[in-house]
């Protein structure tokens, strides 16, 4: 792999492709080489070719979560990066497959939630992202691991992006109770308080 990176650093993708192709011929059932070749093609903007290599790697039994992530990104938009041309249905399909067949099914579930968090332009936490789908994934993860702050913090960010600051604050407070040293939980609490402050002030004035 280091050798391939050296070729890429020298802006010599053709040499990298040639070297990996040689390895493929020596070990035709090794999915790793198809994944690596897909990565080189992806970086060169040859998305269709990259996608074929990722799919071949999976077909050969390569189950590293990275190959599913790269495959999902190949549907992320024009040029194989998340942005204009984003195909959510394809991205979600790949992520769902990863939750069933990858060697890191937990990580794949977070990857699936991230797919739901992208809007129609492929931007994370966009205003028109299908947050309810991501919330469902994070809530299931939080229910399975109630002492783990990762899904709870993710829920807090999700609710905040969706504009539900009360639920977001509740998540960050719960995460902080579980881990008093969590900078993310503390920052989330402060941010929510800043957004909710004017509302609460208005409510207090109305109750006087």
Structural summary, described in words:
This protein has 208 residues and is mainly alpha-helical. The chain contains eleven helices and no strands. It has helices at residues 2-9, 13-26, 31-43, 47-59, 65-73, 88-101, 105-116, 131-144, 149-161, 165-178, 183-207. Helix 10 (165-178) packs across helix 11 (183-207). The longest helix is centred in the last third of the chain and has 25 residues, at 183-207. The chain starts with a helix and ends with a helix. Mean pLDDT is 89; it is low at 202-208.
Keywords:
208 residues; mainly alpha; 0% strand; elongated; disordered C terminus
Please write out the topology.
Blueprint: H1 2-9, H2 13-26, H3 31-43, H4 47-59, H5 65-73, H6 88-101, H7 105-116, H8 131-144, H9 149-161, H10 165-178, H11 183-207
Helix pairs in contact: 1-2, 2-3, 3-4, 4-5, 5-6, 6-7, 7-8, 8-9, 9-10, 9-11, 10-11
Structural category is mainly alpha
Q: What does the average pLDDT come to?
A: 89
- The coarse silhouette is elongated
SSE series: HHHHHHHHHHH
Q: Tally the helices: what do you get?
A: 11
Helicity level: over 70%
Beta-strand content bin: under 5%
Parts with pLDDT < 50 across at least 5 consecutive residues: 202-208
Q: How widely separated are the two ends?
A: 68 Å
Total strands: the figure is 0
Rounded radius of gyration (Å):
21 Å
Largest β-sheet summary: none
In brief:
With 208 residues, the protein is mostly helical. It is built from 11 helices and no strands.
């Amino acid at each position: 792999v280091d050798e391939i990176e050296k070729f890429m650093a020298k802006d010599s993708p053709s040499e990298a492709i040639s070297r990996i192709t040689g390895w493929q011929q020596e070990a035709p059932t090794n999915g790793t080489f198809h994944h690596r070749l897909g990565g080189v093609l992806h970086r060169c903007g040859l998305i269709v070719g990259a996608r074929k290599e990722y799919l071949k790697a999976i077909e050969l039994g390569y189950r590293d979560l990275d190959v599913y992530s790269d495959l999902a990104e190949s549907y992320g938009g024009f040029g194989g990066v998340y942005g204009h041309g984003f195909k959510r249905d394809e991205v979600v399909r790949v992520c769902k497959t990863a939750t069933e067949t990858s060697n890191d099914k937990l990580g794949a579930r977070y990857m699936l939630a991230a797919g739901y968090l992208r809007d129609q332009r492929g931007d994370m936490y966009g205003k028109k992202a299908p947050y309810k789908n991501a919330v469902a994934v994070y809530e299931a993860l939080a229910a399975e691991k109630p002492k783990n702050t990762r899904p709870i913090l993710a829920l807090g960010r999700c609710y905040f992006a969706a504009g539900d600051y009360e639920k977001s604050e509740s998540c960050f407070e719960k995460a902080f109770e579980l881990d008093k040293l969590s900078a993310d939980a503390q920052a989330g609490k402060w941010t929510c308080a800043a957004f909710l402050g004017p509302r609460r002030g208005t409510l207090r004035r109305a109750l006087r």
